[in-house]
């Protein structure tokens, strides 16, 4: 098989490569890897590289181009492809076993150099036939096997009856085949280490072929069983065999038993490797003796993990862990009899070794290609068990025999872990094998605790006094000065144990006295351990519900001193700062544990929260601040929890005076601790509202916790926050426009999540709570691209609209939007507007758009003036100083995403709230919006180019502004000349700025001014907007300076033409624009201008046409009459030519001008005083010839006139 194989190609993920015959050769195991595939890790003919595994998992045809003929040859016999397995399954499997026997027989032949070629060819041929047959079984199941209807009573064909028995027959045959070949680890006289290429011509002994055929059989049986289940979608029962539990054998049970057996074999092969290598070489030694064994591991990983995801079955790690656990068991009777006996000199080390190697196999994908980014399925639970075993058997020092991990477990204990160790020693029920897992000192402590407890239980305090005397006498000044680090740790362990079983106050007091004997140098070096021990005693006091006053006083003073040192230390003194911070963190973590452990608080708890925290907060960097603020949040949560419990107890019925007095005292103690938090922490948070020193998330979280504390215990808040501390804090962190939006969004999310708080504020008489919260939400959305309001670099990097907002902030904004839409005021607005909003709360920008629209619709539906006035006031309250929110986007640093958001949202606001802006209360804001966004100073400088991002944002949103302003002009309560002027100025500025470079009508389709007229299905005042546009064109774009035509005349003519094409032309518009267009035709000779002016003339004349029996428009006639009077004498030829064009469209218009034309001719001749102007008369006669009988009559009169 190796000699004849051509280069194979990797299978792509789509599996859509053209299928060639060579590519679809049946795959098989081979460790004779060549480099023809370009650095493959497995053979090109392997199950991975050929794509066979992926086809199996995706339920595709195993071999699309094989077995397509009517007949096939297997074992030297011709068979009918579509029926052979049904008609002759037993014969085929018998022939298969015979071929296996023939291959086993070849092993008895001596394999010297002279015979190796012959033996290789014979063995290879047998293996080819066997592998081909098993692949045929797979293809037959996929293509030809039909699912029988077991409930059908219709007579069936004999073949169908046989076919119905085939699945059960296959189960029996496959089971028999597995029994025949046995375990991989039991192959006779096979040296696995010798299964490598022995020479350059790649000839292998029969033993090599037998092993690899066994691998093929083991894997292909799993494939067949898997395909059988996928095809039939039901359990298939065997007829001949039962499993080990005496149940009928099924395809599922056989699959699982075979998986277990195969994994046992692989573990056994790995164990053989592990036991033969030195410990120092284990990590570098390959687990697999052959590349095909490695491939089999990878195949099992993919198949078993796939089954666990789609079926109720165990994952690969579960299978392996279950088998390794049996290996770690000491009694062999727990092992299943079907599993081979696996024994190891070092089962724990081997377990570490094998899971380390197997985990590396997860990097191979379904094609055998290594992918370092591929996720490894977690196996932590089993690793955790191994860690525990490794630590426990190595006398408290973590060690693996083949990996130098010693010392990892010997880390310094925390105060809580010191207490936990003591509790373990004091436990009544001790481990029977304690001597194996603990040190001698720990065993001593366990015995001491047990003896003292038993003696005190029987004889009272006298035994304790004896023990105390003996222990105390052992520690004196000299002994304390001799203590090492380990000795000091054991000292604390001993006295903590004594405190746990006897008099804690007496022991703690004695420990404090003894610590004074330590040498100053030793105290300095071991201060962290001393603080941990001190804190452990504090925790024990708290757990025993004792007053911690004595210990807290001394410890808190030491903390204050260290906090002061930390404050004055320089940032360059990193070692000193780190040393101090280690101590401070011990104190912080310990105090947190004290508060979380204490059943109730005493006045002494307040001592732990001294002004050392005020100094510490000012000195902290970001990472250190996170620790301190996490501590703050934990303490705040504990205080609130304890307060709620007290309130519940006070509200109970039948509380006697003594209990009530006790509860009141506890509440006072709580209030004292809360006041300390306000004093030492909140002032710092307040001062950092606008800085970036404190992480945004923690600043918001801590401020929210203080808000809830103010709700629960308002009297504890500072006096300057009274009488409404909650409102005062929300004003600072939620409604203040100078706070970063990241802080506001997170803070308000916390506030709105508390329904009790929201309900209280909504009904507290502070009616603006919801409105101000909406205002802050609007600001957070509008400022989503701003990361720091106070710094010079206040804009995020301009990547694109989707990536420019930090993911965390966007999540917070989504959450705030969802909560805000649950406010009663917001719900009411959407309800009255009948606008759906639930589906868009996941997108804050869309939600804001929908909110603006809902407010506008709600206002439009109001009837009474008082309701409308109140709604205008509320709407303006929602907006606040909206122009300040968007101001950072309009600075020198151009930011396209921010500009798009700003102009788009403000455009929607102007259009949606047009009726609101039509009121006198709101017009001032509209004027400011227009001046700020559409008519800033830079826009008024026509010669100055606007930044491209700004121009793009205006172009997209300008239709919204024009439509909104037009509505305001039409519906304004007080007609405002300035507003109309403002609209005209906007149109004047942007008609020209968005004219295309080339005057083609097709380029004008997306001009924003025209779009404003086009997208007005819901905007009634189109004529008003168009009228303003026409007036602006007449005034600013068709005015001649002397004889010089206006700039970009062709482009403006194209714009006018597009305007007439898209809208209905009014005679008023013709009256305004036609004189200018006629002037262009007379005075401008540029072909493009003349063509566009002529087209405009034609549109205008057609628009003014009336029926043949009616008179033409008097306004149109008036325009042409004035045109003749202005240009008839000097430009008579051009005038007559233009009127010829008009005559072709509407004769009646020109006929009504005959008297004016004739009079102009006579006036011209009289002016020049040269008699008849023959050339002019001929041109006039040509025009008259187009006017029918009336023209002929006028020509005759001119001939007869002798004047």
Automatic annotation (TrEMBL):
Please report the organism this UniProt entry assigns to the protein: Gorilla gorilla gorilla
Coiled-coil parts of chain: none
User: Where do the Protein MMS22-like N-terminal domain residues begin and end?
Assistant: 26-395
Which GO terms of type biological process are on file?
chromatin organization; double-strand break repair via homologous recombination; replication fork processing
Protein's UniProt keywords contain Isomerase: no
UniProt keyword list:
Chromatin regulator, Chromosome, DNA damage, DNA repair, Nucleus
Q: State the family named in the UniProt similarity comment for this chain.
A: Belongs to the MMS22 family. MMS22L subfamily.
What Pfam families does this protein's entry cite? MMS22L_C, MMS22L_N
The protein's job, in short, is: Component of the MMS22L-TONSL complex, a complex that promotes homologous recombination-mediated repair of double-strand breaks (DSBs) at stalled or collapsed replication forks. The MMS22L-TONSL complex is required to maintain genome integrity during DNA replication. It mediates the assembly of RAD51 filaments on single-stranded DNA (ssDNA): the MMS22L-TONSL complex is recruited to DSBs following histone replacement by histone chaperones and eviction of the replication protein A complex (RPA/RP-A) from DSBs.
Question: What's a GO cellular component annotated to this UniProt protein?
Answer: nucleus
- MMS22-like C-terminal domain: residues covered: 812-1187
Q: Where in the cell is it found?
A: Chromosome; Nucleus
Q: Matching PANTHER family, A to Z?
A: PROTEIN MMS22-LIKE
Name of the protein in question: Protein MMS22-like
Main location (coarse class): nucleus
């Amino acid at each position: 098989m190796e000699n004849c194989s051509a280069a194979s190609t990797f299978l792509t993920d789509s599996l859509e490569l053209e299928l060639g015959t060579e590519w679809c050769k049946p795959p098989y195991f081979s460790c004779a890897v060549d480099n023809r595939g370009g650095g493959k890790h497995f053979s090109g003919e392997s199950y991975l590289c050929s794509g066979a595994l992926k086809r199996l998992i995706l339920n595709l045809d195993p071999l699309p181009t094989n077995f397509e003929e009517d007949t096939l040859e297997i074992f030297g016999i011709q068979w009918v492809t579509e029926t052979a397995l049904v008609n002759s399954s037993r014969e085929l499997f018998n022939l298969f076993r015979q071929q296996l026997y023939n291959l086993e027989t070849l092993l008895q032949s001596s394999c010297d150099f002279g015979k190796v070629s012959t033996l290789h060819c014979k063995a290879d041929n047998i293996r080819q036939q066997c592998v081909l047959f098993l692949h045929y079984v797979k293809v037959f199941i996929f293509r030809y096997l039909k699912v029988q209807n077991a409930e059908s009573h219709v007579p069936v064909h004999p073949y169908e009856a046989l076919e119905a028995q085939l699945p059960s027959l296959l189960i029996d045959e496959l089971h028999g085949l597995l029994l025949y070949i046995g375990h991989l680890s039991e192959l006779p006289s096979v040296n696995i280490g010798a299964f490598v290429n022995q020479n350059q011509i790649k000839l292998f002994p029969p033993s090599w072929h037998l092993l690899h055929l066994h691998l093929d059989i083991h894997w292909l049986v799993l494939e067949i069983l898997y395909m059988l289940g996928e095809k039939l979608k039901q359990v298939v029962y065997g007829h001949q065999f039962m499993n080990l539990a005496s149940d009928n054998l099924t395809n599922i049970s056989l699959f699982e038993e075979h998986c277990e057996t195969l994994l046992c074999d692989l573990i056994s092969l790995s164990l053989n490797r592990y036991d033969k290598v030195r410990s120092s070489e284990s990590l570098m030694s390959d687990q697999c003796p052959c590349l095909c064994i490695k491939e089999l591991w990878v195949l099992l990983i993919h198949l078993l993990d796939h089954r666990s995801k789609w079926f109720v079955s165990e994952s690969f790690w579960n299978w392996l862990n279950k088998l390794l656990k049996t290996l770690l068991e000491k009694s062999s009777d727990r092992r299943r009899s079907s599993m081979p006996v696996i024994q190891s000199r070092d089962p724990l080390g081997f377990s570490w070794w094998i899971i380390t190697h197997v985990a590396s196999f997860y990097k191979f994908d379904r094609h055998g290609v290594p992918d370092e980014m591929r996720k490894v399925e977690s196996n932590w639970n089993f690793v955790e068990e191994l860690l525990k075993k490794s630590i426990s058997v190595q006398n408290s020092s973590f060690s693996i025999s083949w990996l130098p991990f010693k010392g990892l477990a010997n880390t310094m204990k925390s105060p809580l872990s010191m207490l936990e160790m003591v509790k373990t020693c004091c436990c009544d029920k001790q481990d029977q094998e304690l001597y194996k897992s603990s040190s001698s000192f720990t065993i001593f402590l366990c015995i001491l605790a047990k003896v003292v407890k038993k003696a005190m239980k029987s004889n009272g305090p006298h035994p304790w006094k004896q023990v105390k005397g003996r222990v105390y006498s052992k520690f004196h000044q000299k002994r304390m000065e001799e203590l090492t680090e380990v000795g000091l740790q054991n000292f604390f362990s001993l006295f903590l144990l004594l405190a746990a079983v006897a008099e804690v106050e007496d022991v703690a007091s004695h420990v404090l006295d003894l610590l004074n004997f330590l040498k100053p140098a030793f105290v300095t070096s071991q201060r962290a351990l001393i603080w941990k021990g001190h804190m452990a005693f504090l925790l024990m006091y708290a757990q025993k519900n004792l007053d911690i006053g004595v210990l807290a006083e001394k410890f808190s003073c030491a903390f204050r001193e260290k906090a002061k040192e930390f404050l004055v230390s320089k940032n360059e003194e990193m070692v000193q700062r780190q040393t101090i911070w280690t101590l401070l963190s011990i104190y912080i973590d310990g105090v947190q544990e004290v508060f979380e452990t204490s059943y109730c608080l005493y006045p002494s708890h307040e001592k732990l929260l001294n002004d050392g925290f005020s100094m510490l907060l000012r000195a902290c960097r970001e990472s250190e601040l996170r620790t301190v603020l996490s501590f703050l949040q934990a303490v705040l949560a504990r205080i609130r929890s304890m307060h709620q419990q007290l309130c519940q107890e006070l509200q109970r019925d039948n509380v006697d005076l003594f209990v009530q007095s006790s509860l009141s005292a506890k509440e006072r103690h709580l209030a004292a601790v809360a006041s300390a938090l306000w004093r030492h922490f909140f002032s710092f948070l307040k001062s950092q509202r606008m800085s970036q020193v404190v992480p945004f998330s923690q600043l918001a979280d801590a401020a929210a916790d203080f808000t809830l504390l103010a709700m629960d215990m308002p009297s504890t808040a500072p006096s300057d926050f009274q009488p409404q501390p909650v409102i005062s804090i929300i004003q600072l962190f939620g409604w203040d426009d100078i706070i970063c939006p990241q802080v506001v969004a997170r803070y308000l999310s916390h506030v709105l999540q508390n329904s009790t708080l929201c309900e209280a504020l909504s009904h507290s008489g502070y009616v603006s709570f919801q409105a101000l919260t909406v205002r802050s939400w609007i600001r957070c959305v509008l400022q989503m691209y701003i990361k720091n309001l106070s710094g010079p670099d206040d804009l995020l990097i301009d990547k694109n609209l989707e990536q420019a907002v930090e993911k965390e902030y966007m999540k917070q904004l989504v959450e705030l939007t969802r909560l805000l839409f649950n406010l009663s005021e917001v719900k009411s607005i959407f309800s009255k507007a009948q606008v759906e909003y639930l589906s868009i709360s996941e997108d804050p920008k869309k939600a804001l758009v929908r909110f603006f629209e809902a407010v506008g619709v709600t206002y439009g539906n109001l009837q009474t003036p008082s309701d409308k006035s109140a709604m205008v006031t509320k709407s303006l309250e929602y907006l606040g100083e909206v122009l300040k929110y968007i101001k950072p986007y309009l600075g020198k640093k151009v930011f396209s995403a921010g500009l798009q958001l700003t102009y788009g949202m403000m455009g929607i606001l102007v259009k949606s709230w047009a009726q609101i802006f039509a009121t006198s209360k709101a017009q001032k804001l509209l004027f400011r919006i227009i001046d700020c966004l559409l008519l800033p100073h830079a826009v008024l400088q026509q010669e100055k180019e606007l930044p491209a991002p700004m121009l793009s944002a205006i172009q997209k949103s300008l239709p919204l502004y024009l439509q909104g302003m037009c509505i305001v002009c039409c519906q304004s309560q007080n007609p405002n000349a300035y507003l109309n002027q403002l609209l005209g100025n906007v149109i004047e500025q942007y008609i020209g700025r968005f004219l295309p470079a080339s005057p083609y009508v097709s380029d004008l389709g997306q001009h924003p001014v025209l779009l404003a007229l086009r997208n007005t299905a819901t905007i009634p005042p189109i004529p008003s907007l168009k009228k303003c546009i026409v007036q602006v064109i007449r005034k600013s774009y068709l005015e001649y300076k002397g004889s010089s035509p206006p700039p970009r005349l062709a482009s403006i003519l194209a714009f006018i033409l597009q305007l007439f094409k898209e809208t209905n032309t009014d005679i008023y518009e013709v009256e305004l624009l036609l004189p200018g267009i006629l002037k262009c035709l007379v005075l401008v000779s540029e072909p493009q201008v003349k063509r566009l002016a002529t087209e405009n003339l034609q549109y205008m004349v057609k628009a003014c046409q009336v029926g043949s029996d009616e008179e033409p428009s008097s306004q149109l006639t008036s325009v042409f009459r004035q045109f003749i009077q202005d240009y008839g004498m000097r430009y008579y030829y051009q005038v007559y030519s233009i009127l010829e064009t008009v005559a072709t469209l509407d004769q009646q218009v020109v006929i009504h001008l005959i008297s004016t034309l004739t009079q102009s001719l006579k006036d011209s001749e009289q002016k020049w005083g040269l008699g008849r102007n023959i050339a002019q008369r001929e041109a006039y006669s040509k025009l008259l010839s187009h006017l029918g009988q009336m023209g002929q009559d006028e020509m005759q009169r001119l001939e007869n006139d002798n004047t």
